[in-house]
Amino acid sequence: MDHYDIIVIGGGPAGSTLAWSLEKSGKRVLIIDKQDFPRDKTCAGWVTPAVMDTLEIDQDNYARGRTLQPISAFRIGMMGQAPVDNDHGETVSYGIRRCEFDAYLLDRVNANKQLNTPVKSIEQKGRNWVINDTFEAPLLIGAGGHFCPVAKKLGHGPGSHETVVAAKEIEFEMTAAQASVCQARGDTPELWFCRDLKGYAWVFRKGNFLNIGLGREDSHKLTDHLNDFVDDMKAQGRIPADLPGRFKGHAYLLYAHAERPLVDEGIMLIGDAAGLAYTQSGEGIRPAIESALIAADVIRRVPDVSARNLQRYGEAISERFGTRALNDQSSWQIPDWVKLPLASGLMRSQWFTRKVVTEKWFLHQQVPPLESAL
Ligand SMILES: Cc1cc2nc3c(=O)[nH]c(=O)nc-3n(C[C@H](O)[C@H](O)[C@H](O)COP(=O)(O)OP(=O)(O)OC[C@H]3O[C@@H](n4cnc5c(N)ncnc54)[C@H](O)[C@@H]3O)c2cc1C
After folding, report:
1. Does residue 51 sit within a domain?
2. How far is CA 234 from CA 17, 178, 195, in A?
């Protein structure tokens, strides 16, 4: 049996950030992931500046051999009507490719890594959690994303009654011919809201890579909504007519809809495993890394890993992200008062799309980066 202080299930942004933060703590940490890295993750790959700051990413270093697309404008609209272009005059966000970003974050961590290793069993033996009959530790971190086996162990996973966002996305490198006809601009991601306001689609060009997707709270007819959107974008010449491959699907929970407990005896859930994506935008990378840093801080402070002590993490998450019951009022699909005939007018307003949709809902500019000196 290989003994550790902490076993982290999942080497995505949440898991790697937790291990990175505990690097100087003297704790023996093992990260287990079912995939080898670099691996793909269904995601638009848009990160806010708070993520780059909090993770202390040297952007010049990162951009060497990797895609780092600065964003300085947004094109926002409602499907079927003319969009609004808002130029922010400076870099307000970034585009990355998840296969590169996640591998970069995991590579820089010195913790032990057991990749290409699906978690098949989680057993409790005395005070330890035993994984696959091989690895044991008193503290288990569930960082395995939406389908995390640790969340499942706590009774929450696929099949539980939480409302999930269903999304489909494609990312590919354009040929020279495709790039020359594609009217989408790298510095200007496009957000297109569904007319029933139950979701939105995006067209996001990152250098020569193009990412197109659509996410909805209501998964009914997701493919029909996506096909209509893609046909419309092709007809307008915004994306190439010959998209390669198929759109990949994934699901995730928004903070206001999640009902997962965050801790149990010797267990903490972070990132998507805990259901922390921002309710209005679906941005999940920032909450994933912030929850990891908050969890690491609690781990450094508690005398033991009893649920009672770990509950400090649950309290800190509520302080940072709000209590779930209260948050439910501001559902991501846009507050109720906007769900009026007024909505299509607001989506034509320069002020509303810039100040509310972009700066508040999508960039979360009103929330300063988490203090890194936790
Ligand atoms: C279509 C789509 C678009 C999105 N776009 C954005 C965006 O532009 N910006 C943004 O901020 N967020 C976006 N999100 C959300 C974002 O992708 C997630 O919030 C983020 O990946 C959460 O990180 P994580 O580390 O918690 O989980 P993940 O990144 O999902 O990592 C979990 C890891 O756990 C591993 N794992 C899972 N099960 C097991 C197992 N049984 N055994 C071992 N390992 C396991 C997986 O292999 C994976 O590496 C998007 C999501 C979707 C679906």
Report:
1. no
2. 39, 12, 19
| pLDDT of res. 72 | 97
Residue ranges with strand state E in 229-331: 248-253, 263-264, 267-269
pLDDT per position as a tens digit, 41-86: 999 999 999 999 999 999 999 999 999 999 999 999 999 999 999 9
| One domain for residues 24 and 107 | yes
Residue 216 lies in a domain: yes
- How far is the centre of ligand 1, averaged over its atoms, from the C-alpha of 63 (Å)? 22
Domain hosting residue 225, numbered range: 71-95+164-252+334-374
Q: Express each pLDDT in 167-183 by its tens digit.
A: 999 999 999 999 999 99
Query: Which residue is it, tokens 């800190």?
Result: 316
Residue type, 286: R
Give residue 265 CA to ligand 1 midpoint distance, Å: 25
Confidence of residue 117 (pLDDT cuts 50, 70, 90): very high
Closest CA to 270 of 280, 262, 261: 262
Greater pLDDT, 307 or 330: 307
Whether the CB of 297 sits within 6 Å of ligand 1: no
Tell me if 13 CB under 6 Å of ligand 1.
Answer: yes
Q: For the chain, what's the residue count?
A: 374
